[in-house]
Fold:
Amino acid sequence: MEENRKRQRIYRTIMLIFIVALITFITTTALIYNGQVRYVTSNGNKLNNSTIKKLDTLLSTVKELIDEKYVGEVNEEELIDGALKGLVASVGDKYTEYYTKEELEDFTAQTLGNFVGIGVYLTSNFNEDVVEVISPIKGSPAEEAGIKTGDKVLKVDGVEYKAEQLSELTNHIKGEEGTEVILTIKRNEEVFDLKVTRRSVHINYVASEMIEDNIGYISISTFDEECARDFKVEYESILEKGAKSLIIDLRGNGGGLVDEALEIADLMCDKNQITLITVDKDGKEKITKAKKDAIIKMPVVVLTNKGSASASEILVAALKENNKAEIVGDKTYGKGVIQELIYLQNGGALKVTSSEYYTPNKNKINEVGIEPNYEVKYDYTVEDNDEQLDKAIEVLKEKMK
Structure:
């Protein structure tokens, strides 16, 4: 019963950055709007237009020629999957893609919590034509092996991959628990190999602690189901311990369920303050506002880096532009588009970019990111030295004077 409920809950709109949590397979972008699963069959709309007829004719012709001329064996399902992947890839949008039945099953298993892999979020860096690390998951094999935000993954087990080959790279990395994979990493100008052992990855999405001078600290690694509830529990915990101000750490948080991020924003924003604006393909605008009076009224600082993306950027923008928090760290990633996952009759699915979102002041996020109030770089070469956290503490101390 609980698993069935979880399966229904994953069909909600989420906006994870196009990342891959190399656990079972891929943690990817958005799911279905309003909790509805959309299925498309051969009797769908617009199948009789000239484009569809032309495509159908060409595909049929090519298939007949392969059957007539090709000397090898042909796998019919792989032929169809390959055609669909090519069609969708030709759109030219890095967030729009086709999932085979097997890929979709892997994705669903990972979404339900079956995590086996190395635990790292990746994206395609088309400017440098490489696959880049958004962030390793805390406590994961990737983090323990020394993989860091901004690392470029050049090779996997000696095989070179480019930005457009993100799916192939992730397929190469995934594997059975206990097996090893060697990643060739480029960090700044240094190139080196890291050996990582695949294993089960447990993600603590929300965690808290008290730090100096009555400052509470809550980290959110992703906006998963019930994240807002867990955040509220952790907030109440630090409040009981005497917290007078709060640091929210969103560094390396690649996104997640939009509703969860908005619910957390509602805890700090005043009722009816704008928290999100979305615009669909037809230019139709939807404005989301805080539904309740704020319950968190203490000074707040949010920590960000370039691994803070999508739903993280929604929360950051809502708090920053409604003057509910100061932002400390690096500029956020800049993933401001939403994808819809549409299930197909062959068991696969189409993930397609269907709308764009903006900050409460209608500022663009996609490919832009959000600038912090206090820009502070993190020096990854110095252990136990978190200048961003130190700055957040400094800002809160000034506010509490």
Summary: The first strand starts at residue 39 and ends at 40. The chain has a mean pLDDT of 84.
